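tool=predict chain=A
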Amino acid sequence: MNPEQTYRFWVTCPQGVHGLLKQEITQIAEVEVGDWHKGVTFSGSLADAYRVCLWSRLSNRVYLALGETSEVSFDELQRLVTSVQWDEHLRPTGTLRVKFSGHLPEIRDTRFGAQKVKDWVVDQIRDKHGSRPNVDAKSPDVSIFAQVARKKMFVGLEFTSESLHKRGYRQFTGPAPIKENLASALLMAAGWPEMAKERKSFFDLMCGSGTLVVEAAMIAADYAPGLGRVEYAFERWLQHDNVAWQLLLREARQRREKGIETMPAVIGYDADGGVIAAANETLDSLGLSKQVRCYHKSLDEWEMPTHRPVKPGLWLSNPPYGERLGDKPLLLKTYRKIGELAREKLADWRIGILTSDDVLAREVGLRPYDKKRFHNGPLETTLYLYDAGEDRAASAESSTKTNEQVQGFKNRITKNLKQLKKWQQKEGIEAYRIYDADIPEFAVAVDKYGDWLHVQEYAPPKTIPVQKAEQRLMLALEALSDMFEMPVSRIAVKRRERQRGQSQYERNASQGQFFEVTEHGVKLKVNLFDYLDTGLFLDHRNSRQWVQQNCNGKRVLNLFCYTAAFTSHAFVGKAVKTVSVDLSKTYLKWGRDNLKLNGGKEGPSHQFIHADCMQWLADCKDSFDIIVLDPPTFSNSARMKDTLDVQRDHEFLVNSAMNCLTAEGVLIFSNNYKRFHMADSLYEKYDVKDITNRSVPLDFKRSKPHRCFEVRHKFSG
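tool=predict ok
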């Protein structure tokens, strides 16, 4: 091999950066760049490859191609590896490392694949020279790259050692930093290299540990990103051209010195003083601290700098995304502030915002002129690009409309609270509904549990875009936080959709955060986060009160008891016996806890039975004065003998329950199937009275979430 020889190279890059990388390599080395399945490929001299390693801001790794084939098999892999004359690349007494990826029928583990490639290489060298190289996993003389892809196989040498995104300057990072080559990709996509040549300025008003600021400064200063790296893998390669490499290093240092003298203003700001200090330490280590600086200042405090001249250019930031649902409402104000600053103080600037959340991006209130997709680690993100001075009237009109809708939501909740205040205080309850999709734009149910809120979002119709529905949910949470002066962390949020089978009782999270609420003098344990429901069906409050008021000295059966709230009410109401039946051990334990909160305990007088209610009823020989029967609409639990459909099976359930009811007793039968129709045969056989209007409490009158019946035995007479 000689300096003028042409070689082929493969270059990898982050997902979404491929197109930008092709342009960058063409500019760096003036070579023709093609597509490769993990990035790009180009042909050129060793000096071209060295130049890419030194100057590429977007690449991850550069490989010298030694061989590839379209025949994918174990035998072909061996032929491909052994066709390389390895003693041209590695001394017999040297060290090597093999990085293998892919699978073959004979190779199902990458470690085994690496072992086979290593064996073929060292066996070839030993057969020729009588000695063999050793493996060095940390600092080898050569690092061999072998990959089995779906339709091709590749063998080459790694030129870069560590990934090129590791520039060598990063000493400390704040939360959720972006990689250096992604930061450069964002800057290039936003047009910063061209703007920097025109001496325009750069701001990052949410700079964190300063990755975007540093990368913007290095671009503006014509500072080769590879100058800070300690070593490249090609420097130990037998055919390394050190003369060409030293010339490139000297040229890069000269360009850096000249570039720093003429670079424009690059400034960062952040509300976290700790990360600002780290960012400035990085700038110091790079010799850029006189030209570039980061300052401790929040978005709310930010003003246009006066200590040095700035020319309208680029503001690019990577604000928090709010990966957890509960974090997002807190970020709405942040994204709105971004738009406010853009319109009011940076109207002549270009704005770039990277986020994974379209809903938050909408809050900027500007119409992007371009959107570009990138992967920030595992997250698919979008770079939104705005011209801050454009479309002000349209953004203001959109903001006004949104504000009017939010105010309407707040007004309705205020009205509801006013109507419920006297009733809530008189009844002595701490958990009640304050809003239930009263306004079409905000299709949520809001319940107050003491000092907490529980918000259930109804699944939006298919005609409403997902982003629009989520934006409304975020606005609702923000409004609730403001109205009740509580942090969003005290608002539990769930999406309510049509449930099938046991899914309505399945676990959502595992915070284990329980607390008590009081209802008509009864203490009940609730959990707002871990399950779809909270442990307390608020719409059955009136029925629980009725049981409490009418069970003195009576025997009460609670079927499909869930967390046995009816049982606790019956105990407080001085029932002589209660039996609670459910198929869930979790909820039966919860029911025991509720009973204990009210001074009771499990025993002969208060039994908790783990059983399929349908089967238990069929075998029941006891009799009860009050029976509560509130089955799910549908259940197909694997623990049940048969599925349960309340419309289909309610005759069996009612008849079986009535067989256990005393002559003067009453069955409270309810369900939440909207189209439920009580069988005519039951009206003929029993004294059935629809008491839904009485059983639905005041805070649920508008929605009427259940149907409820009193069923008694008929007497001839």
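Residues 396-497 form a domain with the Transcription Regulator spoIIAA fold (CATH 3.30.750.80). The longest helix spans residues 392-427.
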